[in-house]
Structures are given as C-alpha cells and as structure tokens.
What does this fold into?
Amino acid sequence: MSKLTILVVEDEPSIAEVVGLYLQRAGYQVRTATDGKIAMTALENELPDLVILDLMLPEIDGLSLTRWLRERSDVPIIMLTARREEIDRIAGLEMGADDYVVKPFSPQELVSRVRAVMRRLKRASSQDGQAPASTERPLTYSELVIDAPSRTVTVSGKDIPLTAKEFDMLYLLAQHPKQVYTREQLLDRVWGGAEYIDPGTVTVHIRRVREKIEADPSKPVRLVTVWGVGYKFEP
Ligand code: CA
It folds into this structure.
C-alpha cells in the first residue's frame, strides 16, 4: 500500500516547512503549494488523500479554493485559520471543510487532527480500503447508480455484477467526474501501486466495465478515453 499523500497549501514558508516535516515523520507523503493558484493546478493534476489549507492565501483565498474543490471532490480538508478569522472558519466548515486548527498551533496537534480525519475516512471506506467511501449516499448519474457501502452498481434498476477491482476503479472515476486519471494513477489508487501489474490491466478493466455499464461499449459515454492521457468519468 502506497503512502497517503497530503497537500499543504500555506504561503508562510516557516509554517509550511514545520508542518511538512511533522507529517513526513508521521509517515505521510507531503506536497506543498505556496498560493491558491498553485494549489489549484496541483489539485487538477492529482488529488491528494487530504488537503491542509491556510485560509489567508495570495492569488486565490482558502475559502474560494474550498468552494472550488468541493464542486469536484470530497477529499478531506483541514483548514488553518487565525483566531480572528472565525467567520471564515464557519463559512469553510459550511462549505464542506472537515476540520480546522487555529494558529498558532502545535504541529503535533495538527498531525493528530490529520490522523483523526484519516481514521474516519478509513472507517467509511470499502472492505479492502482501496476506494475511500466519503459519502454514504449512492452516486447517481441518471440510469447509473453506484452504492459504495453495499458495493453494488445498477443500470436502469438492473444489478450489474462487477469484480472488486472493476468496482473500485469505476467508483474512483465516478467520485471525481471529468477528472482525468492516467493508467499509472489508476494502478496506484485501485491496485495499490503494485509495480508488477501490467498497465494493460487498466485497459482491460475499463473495457470490461464498459461492456457492463455502457449502452454501446464501442461508443462509451461514461468511461471516456482521453487520448494520450488516460480515462475520465462523464457525469
Ligand atoms: Ca497565510
């Protein structure tokens, strides 16, 4: 199982550095972004497992970034806020941030909060823990319904039997509609990044899932190929 990745969005280098150090020591892989714009680009490229987000940021502020991110993903967000930013903190929580710490904070406290959020996520995740189920409600895209807790998929009310990996892959893609995943990213997320697995495995799984859920598997409208890049789910 590969390390969980955390994106730290913080414009104050000293804070970013200390936070990064503590998280790395706690066993996480850390990436950093020094302003909102850089963070957006990083998040568009690849979603981390958790985001630590300073609210006061240059370019794009933390609240706008939270709103933007929540339109795309359920990735957990822990906000870093100053004591005077109570209104922003509440707004952030209402927008779907998962937790916050108030500056100045001890890095150890932040690590504890991260662990707590990750634990909640793990409890809510599927049996093998590969596809985090961040919502209890089924994902519904007109005829297609994907229910994470029961790991069932229906098309127009008809049960579609999927293997564990087929389900995990479809669920990951459908959780992040329109986000393009490379075959390497899918291997990493669904197969746990096992180097010995042929990237062709992803192609095969995509084809099988298409045969099961697409009206015309030769002209897929759900699992769409992005030529030269990878695959995405069309809502
Ligand atoms: Ca700041």
About this structure: Confidence is low (pLDDT under 50) at residues 131-135. The helical segments are 13-25, 36-45, 62-70, 86-95, 107-123, 164-175, 183-190, 200-213. The two ends are 29 Å apart (CA to CA).
